[in-house]
């Protein structure tokens, strides 16, 4: 047949269905969603589903605006932040110059660039996996995409450094993907007051323990929002279903619960990192709910297989890139991570 699209898709982490496994391969939250989310689900009146969901998600935008200290018209809600990011690529990256993003970052950026036929350049991280600020300054580009803290490195870039990049590229949109910002690091939110060219994305999947709900959002200037909304309404106007909006609202209203569980995850992360370092592993300094580590005394591929034989699922990217020596391990509960430390200890 003629005209069929060929594309190499994003490869997500496995979702094994076995019981009694430790699943720390896709950066899902270690804890259950807020009790308010569970109550909102049982209170939901299914009769309402006869209607279409909200086009503008005003209730959820108002609640987020209040928490974030921005205005409602600086927010857009989507079907996961992947939806918002894809919309942003379509909306903002229409120049002939290549967009820039790191060679080691969220794997989906390259896939969207190819899908939407956007020229792109992958910019190498430094040898210690840092984003080099000067690489994004004084360089012709059609836009910039950074994850901060970066994934899968976990490394955070300071607000000052992010501002240098945003300030030096005011003719282009700079997307800052803050999927992990509630586990550590400084948000770029304060830059919204000074710059119109910054667009921040967030998700309920990681810090709100709602990966299966599929809700994410973007924050930016009204100027950018107008473009995004026009593209959204040319494509899939009712992208957030009614149940999802209601439950995401309940999560947004329970700041205290999430502050508590995410603080625990950060503590477990730091404990787990130190345990691995004590075994001689190289562990990158993480501000997220996962760590990237290079094992000592065993290859990443062998440790991955060994852990899987013990029903512990971590992420191995394989291939021939710099990541082939590393494993990405999401942070589960303290009990789960203690078990992982014990199992890894048995290798030696
Ligand atoms: C998980 C993740 C996303 C996607 O989040 P969803 O809201 O589940 O679509 C986007 N960016 C990064 C860096 C992520 O890790």
List its salient traits.
Aminotransferase_I/II_large; 348 residues; alpha/beta; 34% helix; globular; 5-stranded mixed sheet; single chain; Aspartate Aminotransferase, domain 2; 2 domains; PyrdxlP-dep_Trfase_major; binds pyridoxal-5'-phosphate
3D architecture notes:
GO terms for molecular function: histidinol-phosphate transaminase activity; pyridoxal phosphate binding. InterPro entries: Aminotransferase_I/II_large, HisP_aminotrans, HistidinolP_aminotransfase, PyrdxlP-dep_Trfase, PyrdxlP-dep_Trfase_major, PyrdxlP-dep_Trfase_small. Strands 2-8-7-6-5 form a five-stranded mixed sheet. A three-stranded antiparallel sheet has the order 9-10-12. It has a two-stranded parallel sheet with strand order 1-11. The protein has two domains: 22-32 and 256-345, Aspartate Aminotransferase, domain 1 (Alpha-Beta Complex); 35-253, Type I PLP-dependent aspartate aminotransferase-like (Major domain) (Aspartate Aminotransferase, domain 2), CATH 3.40.640.10. The model has no long low-confidence stretch (mean pLDDT 96). The N and C termini lie far apart (55 Å). The chain is 34% helix and 13% strand. The longest helix is centred in the last third of the chain and has 24 residues, at 255-278. The protein has helices spanning 35-43, 58-68, 81-92, 108-115, 159-167, 222-232, 242-252, 255-278, 300-309, 334-347, and strands at residues 22-23, 75-78, 99-102, 120-123, 144-147, 174-177, 198-203, 216-220, 282-283, 290-294, 312-313, 327-330. The chain is globular. It has ten helices and twelve strands. With 348 residues, it is an alpha/beta fold. Pyridoxal-5'-phosphate (PLP) binds next to helix 3.
